[in-house]
C-alpha cells in the first residue's frame, strides 16, 4: 500500500527524513499548483529526480542548463537521439568528445539537487510514495546522501523566506543604475548571473528573465537580490507588496509578453560593463 498524504501535515523535510532513516527504496511524487515532482530513492539515498513529464528531463537539456551544451547543440542532439536512453546518449557524447564523464555526472547530480531543493518551498500539495518503484535502467542515476540534502534544503528554505520578503513581486522590471556601485570593481559573476544581466531591460520583467534562462523563482530571486545589493541594477517601478494569497492569484496573472533578447549588434550596457571590469 502506497504512503500518501498532504504537505500541510507532513513536510518535505519530514518525508525525506523518514525515507533516509527507514532506508526506503521507491519513488516519491508530489503535486503542487499544477506542477508535479518525482524523486526516486534506493536504500535511503536519493538517486533520480525530474519535474513534470520525464521527457523534459532529457540529458541534452540537462547539459544545456549546466552550460555544457548550447541551446542549438542540445536541440540537434535531442532530435537525433530519439529512441536512445540517457546512458546510451551519454556514451555517444563522451566518445565524440562533446563532454566528459565528469561533466555528465556533475550536471545530472546538480539537476537532481535543484529539483529537490525547490520542493522545500512547497508548503501545500499531495504526495505519494510507491515502494520499490525505480527509474528504468536507461536513466542515469547518481546516489546522493539525504543528510546533506536535508541540511542544505532547510538552509535554502530560510533564505527563500528572506528573498520572498525582499522580492515579493516578480512581475516588475529592472534597469541598470546610472553609475554602478564601487563594489563593481570586485564583481565576480557566474555564467547564470551574466545571462540574467544580459536580459536586464525595462521591457523585461524578472519573471520573463527567469523563464528565458530556465531559472526557478528561488534562483532568479537570489541572483536579482545580489545584483540589487551590489548596486548594479534597480527597479524601474517600486515593487508591489507581498500578496496575501499568492497561490490564489497565480492563475490571474496578466498575459506574458515576449522577452526582449539581448542586443547582438549595438554596444549594450552589458558590454560596456564587461569592458570596464576588464580594465579595472
Walkthrough of the structure:
With 280 residues, the protein is α+β, with helices and mostly antiparallel strands. The strands form 2 sheets. It has a 5-stranded antiparallel β-sheet with strand order 1-5-2-3-4, with helices on one face. The protein has a two-stranded antiparallel sheet with strand order 6-7. Strand 3 and strand 4 form a beta hairpin. Helix 1 runs antiparallel to helix 6 and helix 5 packs across helix 6. The longest helix is centred in the middle third of the chain and has 21 residues. The chain is globular. The C terminus is likely disordered.
Largest sheet data: 5 strands, antiparallel
* Amino- and carboxy-terminal Cα gap: 64 Å
Helix content: 40-55%
Beta-strand segment tally = 7
Number of domains: 2
Stretches where pLDDT falls below 50 for ≥5 residues?
A: 244-256, 276-280
**Cα-atom Rg, whole angstroms?**
20 Å
Structural class: alpha+beta
What is the H-and-E element order? EHEEEHHHHEHEHHHEHH
Mean pLDDT: 85
Spatial ordering of strands, largest sheet: 1-5-2-3-4
Q: β content, as a range?
A: 5-15%
Number of H- or I-type helical stretches:
11
> Per the principal axes of the C-alpha atoms, what is the gross shape?
globular
Give the arrangement of secondary structure elements.
Layout: E1 3-6, H1 12-21, E2 26-32, E3 35-42, E4 45-51, H2 59-65, H3 71-80, H4 86-95, H5 101-119, E5 126-131, H6 146-166, E6 174-176, H7 191-198, H8 206-212, H9 217-229, E7 233-235, H10 246-249, H11 269-279
Antiparallel strand pairs: 1-5, 2-3, 2-5, 3-4, 6-7
Amino acid at each position: 500500500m502506497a504512503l500518501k498524504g498532504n504537505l500541510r501535515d507532513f513536510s518535505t523535510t519530514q518525508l525525506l527524513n523518514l525515507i533516509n532513516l527507514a532506508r526506503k527504496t521507491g519513488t516519491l511524487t508530489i503535486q503542487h499548483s499544477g506542477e508535479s515532482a518525482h524523486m526516486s530513492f534506493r536504500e535511503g539515498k536519493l538517486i533520480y529526480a525530474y519535474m513534470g513529464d520525464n521527457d523534459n528531463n532529457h540529458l541534452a537539456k540537462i547539459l544545456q542548463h549546466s552550460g555544457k551544451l548550447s541551446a542549438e547543440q542540445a536541440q540537434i542532439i535531442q532530435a537525433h537521439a530519439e529512441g536512445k536512453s540517457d546512458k546510451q546518449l551519454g556514451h555517444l557524447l563522451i566518445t565524440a568528445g562533446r563532454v566528459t564523464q565528469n561533466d555528465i555526472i556533475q550536471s545530472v547530480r546538480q539537476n537532481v539537487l535543484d529539483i529537490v531543493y525547490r520542493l522545500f518551498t512547497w508548503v501545500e500539495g499531495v504526495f505519494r510514495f510507491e515502494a520499490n518503484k525505480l527509474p528504468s535502467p536507461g536513466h542515469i542515476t547518481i546516489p546522493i546522501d539525504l543528510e546533506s540534502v536535508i541540511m542544505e534544503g532547510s538552509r535554502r528554505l530560510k533564505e527563500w523566506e528572506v528573498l520572498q520578503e525582499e522580492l515579493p513581486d516578480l512581475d516588475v522590471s529592472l534597469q541598470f543604475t546610472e553609475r554602478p556601485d564601487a563594489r563593481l570593481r570586485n564583481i565576480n559573476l557566474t555564467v547564470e548571473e551574466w545571462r540574467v544581466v544580459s536580459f536586464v531591460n525595462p521591457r523585461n520583467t524578472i519573471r520573463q528573465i527567469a523563464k528565458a534562462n530556465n531559472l526557478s523563482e528561488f534562483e532568479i530571486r537570489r541572483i536579482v537580490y545580489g545584483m540589487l545589493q551590489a548596486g548594479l541594477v534597480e527597479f524601474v517601478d517600486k515593487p508591489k507588496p507581498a500578496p496575501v494569497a499568492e497561490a490564489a492569484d497565480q492563475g490571474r496573472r496578466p498575459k506574458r509578453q515576449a522577452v526582449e533578447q539581448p542586443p547582438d549588434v549595438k554596444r549594450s550596457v552589458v558590454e560596456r560593463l564587461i569592458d570596464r571590469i576588464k580594465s579595472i
